[in-house]
């Protein structure tokens, strides 16, 4: 019998994520991996002990679908102390399977067929496929210049009666730039009197350098009323493999998000939630992070200062963009591949996140690595 199974792909344009491609290439070629964003050092032993304790104490069955109460309380307290906004832990905070699920549920809960969602490019690679799975249409706007600034007039002109949502990401992956208070106020102004939801991806909120401040959407009263803010414990506590994050939003929005969360994952791993709830009681565990990563950024930049790469120092995230136009005029994807295969160093070519894959001759390097790894990577970069 011939196989009559036929189906059209729901995401025909989607290829394997660049993060999987580059990490696999790094493994296959035994290369130093500064591509996918994860640390190559351990999460705090205290946190691992708290997870073991939770398991041994019997927290091994389903937790409440919205997350462990104590963890939601701690999240609410943290946001109140940092950004001054109170989110009710019972109705406005949900623990998710990483920020990825928070973003997925937030988009899926609201975007319907033919709705438009404004996406600032280069953008993290899950936003647009998720919008399209919901039948929505991503409206791409390119960030401008070396510093990836938002042209708010362009954003304003892109708004139509079909605009359902706008997605921002600060500190920004892959560029390492941040939105200023002025940016957020302009956004608040543009969105006032509209029915548009703001989806704010703030997974790098605790990785911000040179005494800059993170301007969370939750800090701006008018903006927060229409905002869903997504966060990731994996990024903050060096355990991306635990895939735990959360989102916060006003009750009216959260009610809808929880409907999708329930049918997507229902609830998130229980022992990790118990551990994070305890660990969050000491704010130093996240407030010290910027200093820690700034030292790594400075070490990396100092080590490559005599190389042919040019750069603007990253202001947030654990990524540094390096421009290679003084080394080669190859396309970034080609150069990135050659760098792994011939030189043993993996990075991420930025063009994959740009509109029409525009190539600005930039590679993204993750500096969430031991000093020893950064030194070895810099040695390779300086020889090019
Ligand atoms: N948003 C951005 C901008 C990211 O870089 C990442 C990768 N951590 C995520 C969302 C997803 O976070 P998580 O690993 O918690 O799912
Ligand atoms: N957020 C990480 C990065 O930008 C990777 C996440 C993933 O592997 N999907 O590198």
Structure in a nutshell:
By secondary structure, this protein is an alpha/beta fold. It contains 15 helices and twelve strands.
Structure, described:
With 384 residues, the chain is an alpha/beta fold. It folds into two domains: 18-43 and 287-382, Alpha-Beta Complex (Aspartate Aminotransferase, domain 1), CATH 3.90.1150.10; 46-282, 3-Layer(aba) Sandwich (Aspartate Aminotransferase, domain 2), CATH 3.40.640. The protein contains 15 helices and twelve strands. It has a seven-stranded mixed beta sheet, sandwiched between helices. A three-stranded antiparallel beta sheet has the order 9-12-11. Strands 1-10 form a two-stranded parallel ribbon. Helix 4 (98-110) crosses helix 10 (251-264). The radius of gyration is 21 Å and the shape is globular. It starts with 17 loop residues before the first helix and ends with a helix. The mean pLDDT is 97. It binds 4'-deoxy-4'-aminopyridoxal-5'-phosphate and glutamine. 4'-deoxy-4'-aminopyridoxal-5'-phosphate binds at residues 37, 98-100, 124, 169, 173, 201, 203, 232, 234-235, 240, 243, 245.
């Amino acid at each position: 019998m011939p196989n009559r199974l036929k189906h059209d792909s729901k995401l025909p344009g989607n290829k394997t994520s660049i993060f999987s491609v580059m990490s696999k290439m790094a493994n296959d070629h035994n290369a130093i991996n500064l591509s996918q964003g994860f640390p190559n050092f351990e999460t705090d032993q205290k946190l691992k002990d708290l997870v073991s304790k939770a398991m041994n104490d019997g927290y091994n069955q389903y937790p409440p679908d919205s997350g462990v109460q104590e963890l939601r309380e701690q999240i609410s307290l943290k946001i109140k102390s940092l950004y001054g906004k109170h989110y009710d832990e019972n109705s406005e905070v949900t623990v998710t399977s990483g920020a990825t699920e928070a973003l997925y549920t937030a988009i899926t809960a609201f975007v319907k067929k033919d709705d438009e969602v404004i996406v600032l490019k280069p953008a993290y690679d899950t936003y647009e496929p998720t919008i399209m799975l919901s039948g929505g249409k991503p409206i791409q706007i390119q960030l401008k210049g070396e510093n990836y600034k938002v042209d708010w007039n362009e954003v304003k002109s892109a708004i139509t009666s079909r605009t359902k949502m706008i997605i921002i990401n600060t500190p920004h992956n892959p560029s390492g730039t941040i939105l200023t208070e002025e940016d957020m106020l302009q956004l608040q102004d543009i969105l006032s009197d509209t029915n548009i939801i703001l989806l704010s991806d703030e997974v790098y909120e605790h990785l911000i350098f040179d005494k800059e401040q993170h301007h969370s959407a939750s800090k701006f009263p008018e903006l927060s009323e229409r905002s869903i803010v997504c966060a990731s414990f994996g990024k903050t506590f060096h355990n991306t493999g635990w895939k735990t994050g959360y989102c916060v939003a006003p009750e009216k929005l959260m009610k809808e998000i929880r409907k999708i969360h329930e049918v997507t994952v229902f609830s998130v791993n229980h022992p990790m939630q118990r551990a994070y709830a305890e660990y969050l009681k000491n704010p130093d565990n996240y407030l010290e992070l910027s200093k820690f990563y700034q030292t790594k950024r400075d070490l990396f930049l100092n080590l490559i200062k005599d190389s042919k790469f040019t750069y603007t120092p990253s202001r947030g995230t654990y990524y540094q963009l390096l421009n290679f136009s003084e080394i080669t005029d190859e396309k970034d994807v080609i150069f990135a591949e050659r760098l792994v295969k011939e030189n043993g160093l993996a990075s991420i070519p930025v063009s994959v996140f740009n509109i029409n894959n525009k190539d600005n001759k930039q590679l993204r390097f993750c500096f969430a690595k031991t000093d020893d790894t950064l030194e070895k990577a810099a040695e390779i970069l300086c020889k090019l």
